[in-house]
Amino acid sequence: MAAAETPSAALRRRDLCSRGIRLAGKMRSDVADLLDVYVERQGLDASANVAALDGVPAAAAERWGEQTESQRLLDNLAAYRAFRALLTEMLEEQRDQAGPADAALREALAAVLLQVSAFAYHLEELLRLESRGPPGEEGARPPTGPRLGLGLFERKLRGLGVLRELAQWAVRSARDLRQLAKPGPGGTTAVPAGPAESQ
Amino acid sequence: MFYYLLWMLALLCRSSAADESSVRDADIFPSSPEIERGSTLKLFCVLGKHLIPHRNASHIIWKLNHELIAQENYNVVNETVSSVTIHNFTYNKAHVKCFIKYLGKEQLLVHAEVKSGFPPDTPGNISCIYYFNVELACSWTSGRQTNLTTNYTLYRNMMKDGRVITPNVAGSSCQSKAESCSFRYPNTPYSSSFCFQVKAENVLGEALSDCIPIALEKIEKFEPPEILSVQKIAGIKQLLAVTWKKPKKILPSQGLNCRVRYRNLYSNSSETVPVTPSSGEQITSLNLTGLWDSTEYAVAIQCISVESKFWSEWSREKKASTEEKAPSEKVDLWRVIESSHSAGNRSVHLMWKLLNHFPPPGRILGYRIQYFPENSAALKMMNITTDKKIILLLNEEAYIISVTAYNSAGDSPEATLRIPSTDEKTSQIIETVRTFTANEEVIVEWMASKSEVTRYVVEWFEDLETDPFRRSWQYISNSTNWRTSKKTFKPFICYNISVYPLYGNKVGAPYSVQTYIQEKKPSEGPMADTGIPGKNEITIKWKEISKDKRNGFISNYTIFYKPEGGKELNETVNPDVLQYRLKSLQANTQYTVHIMATNEAGGTSGEPKTFKTLKFNKEDIIFIAIPVGLSMLFLLVLWITCILKKRMFKNVCWPDIPNPAESIAVEWPVDASMNPFLKGVTSEDKTIGGLEDVSILEPCFPEEHENLLLMNRENHVSEYTDINTKDMINGDEKIPYSEEHEAAKHLSPSMPYTITDPDIRSQVLSTLIPAKKIQPLEMLEDDLHESQRTSHQNEENKGEVLNLPDLSEKAVFNPYLKNSVNTREFLISENLPERSKNEPKSQSTAISPFQQNIVGQSYVTLDMFGLATAH
Questions:
Q1: 3-class SS at A174?
Q2: What is the pLDDT of residue B785?
Q3: Most buried in the list A7, A157, B65, B258, measured by CB within 10 Å?
Q4: Is the pLDDT of residue B694 over 70?
């Protein structure tokens, strides 16, 4: 795929990849900060185990190395669209909370939501460059029914699980984008290693 | 139109509401309107209900600030509401006031502040800085001032497929009333897809800018890096190793550029070196080379993202010193030898400086001074100092002095100088020195008589400077001139410039000049001191201006002098003249004089002083005094002569010519009846035969001629009294003394008087006065002389007078009367015959009846006779 693109398209792709890596790195950093704030404000234990959550995309992939570039982008886009919905849901849940500390948490959540949205747009841009338009968002919305019946503590735990998974996705996204940025048979450029890779 | 209808509706509602509760005087609507500049303003004033029915809307008047608005702009809406319309309202801000006028008085009810302005322009020039994880700050320009309250909203949108998407997320916009706004952490997500848009709005409208895409990585600014160490590496000179850590809070996965600034603290110069740290390394190192030896440096670092256009701030400086090295150049050494202040000893002021050679010597730890007599090197002495000067106390011998600078790495080469012995004579090799300026340069030129001399020292110092260490010097080789910047010298200061020839290790005799690099007129003028003025001249003195106020070489003094109301004159003299004699001045005239000192740049006058010339000079006074003095002396001599030779002069000028025919002195007692006056007296004796008493007071006033007169008179009287002595004595016993004595006291308490009883007074008068009356007053003098002539005869008669024991007892006649001419007698004329009353006044014998204690009482004193006689 990369071998067939024009030099300008390759340059554009590389640029988008490098910015995407930067974005993923910043997102990971912000989510890490948000996790600290979230655990503190919600009165949770930072080491609490959260089981796999329904509707939350998992960052782990069994055959990550064998995935195609398009598949990586599509998986990423689907995941971030899901996180956008999940974070919006969390923000709605936080809206009832009052107090300046809660406002700071909401603000941080909103910033991460914006960051996730920006990354989703960024992935869509990359997909367009791959000559594959981004898929529609209809199928990306997480199921909402079961969570309505959750108690407050369960909602808090679920929020913790969402943020942890988002952090994992940030690392994975950086790796995916580095994979994308690797020069193909005709390519000559390299993208510097990001923090996600170093971890 | 709709606007006004809306207002009307609101007013009607308010009016109805006011019916119930409003107790205010009035309301104005709208209360703080903001309208477009040049549009029409309409305001309504609603009267409070309690003012009705005494006052209604027709009583309302309107004012714009302080000016009454014309009535035609008013409109009475109903009984309580009045409106005003102002067309083309162009005030930035104005107050429209609603007054009620009633019974000729105006009362302010309410007012509204009205602003006019413009709708906002579209904001432009949006720019932002992304302080990573701190804030995202944006600013813009708003165009024309609206003059109205304008609110701005900054939107942080996203660009997707070239379309602007406003995120449905709280916190994606911020509001401001100024031209900037910030999103603060944590609301600072990163995206390269953001675009920024500003909406400006006020009451007149709103304007929305385009959404300007700004990739945050391009405007990122982060904290400065942290310097971990700055240190020298042992054994490597002129090098410092710097290590620093990249900033933590930066956008991940991006390259950085840094630059290292190192500042030489010795020279205070700095340089910057760019560095590109490797992307994967958090810590970066750099070796700074080509530094000065033994020199301390301060190092700072700043970085920038490869994507961004904003550098971080500089990190905090960290200091370190380079390896040391022995100074490679000898010091620049000079001396000032003070004249010996004790026998055989003298002070030598040694001073030195470091030459500006490169590489610089680095840090100097100190200076080593060694000196020894030229003829005995074994007597070497040494001093160490960290200053660049020292005073050596040397004897009269010639000395060799050397100075070396040292640091931890070693010593510099020696700089040596020879101090000549005190009796050493050096020849004058420099023949002339001149200084001048050209093109911001000062040039010192000299001529030497020996061409083999190739090295010189130019020394200069301020003329008023007494500290030898404040002198400056410069070694010159292979040239007979020296050029330096004008800035080397201060303007308006007198400098001493000396040129010393150097031959071998000897310093020759200097040639010195004084110079000003730049002159200005003196800071003050000389103070004139006037001496004692003459009639037509005066000597003016003044003192030199102090050196610090001359500001240049004084070229001359000018004496300005001006008579009062006259024209100013002046005289110019050389600078070495400090007094001047002004001549040809007007006598008795006030002059004002002042002195002006002039140098090349101009003149300054001193305080004016006034003096007044004399009316006369000494000669005049001598010419006047001598004749006057001589005249006085002559008159004095004449007067003394007159006094001494009075009789002689009198005899010469007015010789006595006796008139025997008028003389009665001899005939009187013998043939008194022959004299018709005496006959009269005799005939009247009958009437004064009752002479009963005579009181005589103390005599005084001895005057010669009066004595003579009185003696003469006394002779007459005594002769006469001889005749009547018995009666008088008898009478004396009868008259109460106290009565007459009292009368005398009242008349004159101090003067002696002879007071007689009326009867005896008549008798006396009849005996005395006729004797006087027989001759006119001018003849009395003759009597005097005659009496003098007959003084010898009187001497004989005196015995008779003095031999009147009874009289002396009763003090009728004082025995000293002949010597006392001022005895006065009251001559009572109560019973005087008419004839005597009718005597001419010139005879001074006016006698009036005695009345005791009456002011103006007529009396005759013997003084008067005396005075008359004197005439």
A1: helix
A2: 47
A3: B258
A4: no
Closest by Cα among B786, B818, B812, B771 to B799: B818
Distance CA A35, CA A48 (A): 12
Question: Which DSSP category does A87 fall into?
Answer: H
**Bridge partners of B106?**
B101
State the pTM of this model: 0.54
Tokens of B36: 């477009």
Chain A residues close to B167, C-beta within 8 Å: 114, 117
- pLDDT mean across residues, chain A: 79
Cross-strand pairs, B82: B45, B76
Q: How many residues does chain A have?
A: 199
Distance from CA of A172 to the nearest CA of B (A): 14
- In DSSP notation, B741-792 reads HHHHHHH-SSS-EEEE-HHHHHHHHHHHHHHHHTS-GGGHHHHHHHHHHTHH
**What DSSP character marks residue B125?**
E
For B828-871, strand residue ranges (E) read 860-861
Rounded Cα distance between B437 and A108, Å, is 74
A193 and B279: CB-CB below 8 Å? yes
Does any CB of chain A come closer than 8 Å to the CB of residue B213?
A: no
Distances (CA, A) of B223 to A164, B627, B837: 28, 111, 144
Could you give the residue ranges of the DSSP H alpha helices within A43-188? 69-94, 100-129, 152-181
For residue B415, list its beta bridge partners. Answer: B403
Are B93 and B148 within 8 A, CB to CB?
no
Residue B773 neighbours by CB under 8 Å, 6+ apart? B677, B836, B839, B843, B845
For residue B610 the two structure tokens come to 């006034």
Q: Do A115 and B188 touch (CB under 8 A)?
A: no
For residue A58, name the pLDDT band (cuts at 50, 70, 90): confident
Residue from the list B169, B187, B255 with its beta carbon closest to the beta carbon of A192: B255
Is some CB atom of chain B closer than 8 A to the CB atom of A30?
yes
Q: What is the mean pLDDT of chain B?
A: 77
Report the distance separating Cα A142 and Cα A137, nearest Å. 11
pLDDT of B148 higher than 80 = yes
Question: How long, in residues, is chain B?
Answer: 871
Q: What are phi and psi of A73, to 5 degrees?
A: -65, -45
Q: Does residue B862 contact residue B825 with C-beta atoms inside 8 Å?
A: yes
Residue A129 contacts B, CB cutoff 8 Å: no
In order, the DSSP letters of B217-286 are GGSEE-PPPEEEEEE--TT-TTEEEEEEE--SSS-SS--EEEEEEEEETTTTEEEEEEE---TT-SEEEE
Peptide bond into B413 cis (omega under 30): no
> Does B189 contact chain A (CB < 8 Å)?
yes
Which DSSP string corresponds to B312-377?
Answer: PPPPPPEEEEPPP----S--EEEEEEPPPSBTTBEEEEEEEE----SS------EEEEEEEETT-G
Q: Is residue B60 packed enough to be buried (19+ CB in 10 Å), middle (13-18) or exposed (0-12)?
A: buried
Q: pLDDT per residue over B38-77, tens digit each?
A: 999 999 999 887 777 777 888 899 999 989 999 999 999 9
Under an 8 A CB cutoff, do A112 and B280 touch? Answer: no
Burial class (CB in 10 A: 0-12, 13-18, 19+), B524: middle
**CA pair distance A139, A125, nearest whole angstrom:** 19
Report whether B115 contacts B35 (CB < 8 A). yes
Contact B136, B128 (CB under 8 A): yes
- Using the Cα atoms of residue B24, residue B29, residue B34 and residue B39 in order, give the sign of their dihedral: negative
Which tokens go with B8?
A: 């009307």
Q: What are the structure tokens assigned to A146, written together?
A: 């079961």
Q: What residue type is assigned to position B423 of the chain?
A: D
